[in-house]
Amino acid sequence: MPAFLRSPRAAPWLLLAPALLILAVFFLYPLGEMLARSLFDPGFTWKHYARLIEEPTYLQVLWITFEIAFSVTVCTLLLGYPLAYFLSQIRPQAAGLLMILVIVPYFTSVLVRTYAWMVLLGTEGIVNQLLRATGLIDKPLAMMYSRFGVLVGMTYILLPYMVLALYSVMRGIDTGLLRAASSLGASRTRAFWRIFAPLSMPGVAAGSLLVFILSIGFFITPALMGSQEDSMISMIIESQVETYFDWGFASALAAVLLACTLVLFLIYERVVGLNRLFEAKL
Amino acid sequence: MNGHSVGLTTRVAAIAVLVFLALPILIIFPLALSPTDYLTFPPRGVSLRWFEAVLTNADWRGSIWFSLQIAVGSTILAVLLSVLAALALVRGRFRFKQAVYALILLPMIVPNIISAIAMFFFFADKGAVFGSMPAIIIGHAVIALPIAIIILSANLQGVDGRLENAALSLGASRYTAFRRITLPLIAPGIASACIFAFLSSFDELLIAMFMAGSTAQTLPVRIWNAVLFQLDPTIAAISALLVVVSILALLAANLVARRGART
Fold it and tell me: Measuring CA to CA, which residue among B191, B190, B189, B223 is closest to residue B204?
């Protein structure tokens, strides 16, 4: 390493310089330019933001985005909690083995996982074929291109985040406390609700916030599995760029989504801590 | 019996959720091996015709090759920058460290649709300067940067800094100490950073969707365009290949992690 790097004061910044430079030029500057674009057209104007507020469609899209994100969070929590609880209570070797079933989907392409659900839920899809074969229905159910399809697909894709966030907290809960409760005469249900459930709350908070944040910016699954009426904000941003070429308005929508995301992340940072987040997101 | 016993209802619920997690991925394989034009279940026999259709098709092969080049390029770029940055973040003592860390991780926080359109606007008028492939490589490297830095920082934290100090006190230059002591010790971290950076680029849809011209499409962009119009079994075949790729990558990452733990 050149001599000037030996200076203990200079070294860290020199080592950071290449990464920070790339981020500044190709990420932060474009982001700033995009935010500026939402306010200048070419002179200063509020018109993009005004349109967002005046046309009811867009506030509705925002509302639908939050509604879907909330439903997905609740669904992943309902499915993820029992699984994480189970995994945290069995032998670590067995848990490690079963964890593969959580990790493999986690690392499988979102497009591939969405495609799988499109095939499963389509009109001529596997679920409809099976239901018809068993005689439970005689007309195929419309599961794709509906809110139901979006919820199933997004819940499926985000469930591993929830399970991993819950599991990492639950594994740290001292099971001796539960045994102590039983030995003092508490039923299993009582011991669970009075001891385990409260202690697992940091995991619930971490998982729920993470899933909610990821949901509001989600694009692939709602775009492929949703209907027009279930458009989320990311889809509107995409169509404003690709179909309507309205970059200013797209930038304003992106600014709103960015603001929501950052506010939620600040809450996350307060409640859970940033370090935990990045463990959870890997 | 380790831990608290789990009730039967919870057990059943947990196993049902595991099945829910596994089935959609497993379903890809019989679909990909289906001999018929349309997806029927259960499949009527086994055939490799859809794999053949994908691997002999010039468009799909072109996309696989395009994606591979981009993934390799962005992995090299991201991991090189990350090794340096992680050294500074873990070993260095400087002001605003938390702020720098937060800044570096920002591409992970910002929804990809926003990063993608911001970069698209940025490159749109500079297209001639960069060209689509270098632009996509840079875009993917930016997205992979936080992933690589998290992995490498965690790895570097596990390496005893006193080893480097010992080398320095024995007269090694900082560069020699890094090359002879630190680098071999963080080699497993570098390997797993490469694996995850590669996977993140190979799966990234939005950046390439906005920035690739109509001539060269990355694999995810081609899959996206195909899925928009029809769900034919060629997509099942390419999906099956991608599932295998991610399983192999995970196995490799696991192997690397174990090796790292042993040394």
Answer: B223
Please judge whether A241 and B28 are an interchain contact, meaning their C-beta atoms are less than 8 angstroms apart: no
Which tokens go with B89? Answer: 């973040």
Smallest Cα distance from B263 to chain A, Å: 22
Q: Are A95 and A87 in contact (CB under 8 A)?
A: yes
Which of A35, A62, A119 to probe the B interface (max B CBs under 10 A)?
A119
Asked if A116 contacts A37 with a C-beta cutoff of 8 angstroms, the reply is no
Q: What is the three-state SS of A165-213?
A: HHHHHHCCCCHHHHHHHHHCCCCHHHHHHHHHHHHCHHHHHHHHHHHHH
Amino acid at position A227, single letter: S
The C-alpha of B66 sits at a distance from chain A's nearest C-alpha, in angstroms, of 17
Decide if B139 contacts B110 (C-beta within 8 A).
no
Please report how the helices B132-157 and B112-124 are oriented relative to each other, as an axis angle in degrees rounded to 10.
140
Name the H helices within A45-146: 47-54, 56-89, 92-107, 110-121, 126-133
Does A113 contact B at CB distance below 8 Å? yes
ipTM of the predicted structure? Answer: 0.91
Mean pLDDT by 10 residues, chain A (282 residues): 57 91 96 95 90 92 97 98 95 92 93 94 85 86 91 97 95 88 86 91 94 96 92 95 93 97 92 66 52
pLDDT of residue B84: 94
Interior CA angle at B51 toward A159 and A98, to 5°? Answer: 30
CA A123 remoteness from chain centre: 27
Is 50 exceeded by the pLDDT of residue B2?
A: no
Q: B118 vs A27: CB contact, 8 Å cut-off? A: yes
Contact B156/A at CB under 8 A: no
The residues, ordered by sequence, that sit 6+ positions from B184 with a Cβ below 8 Å of its Cβ are none
DSSP 8-state assignment for residue A135: T
CB contact under 8 A, A105 and B102: no
pTM over 0.95: no
Distance of CA A96 to the CA centre of its chain: 24
Whether B242 and A108 have beta carbons less than 8 Å apart is answered as yes
Q: How far apart are alpha carbons A219 and A217 in whole angstroms?
A: 6
Residues of A in contact with B71 (CB under 8 A): none
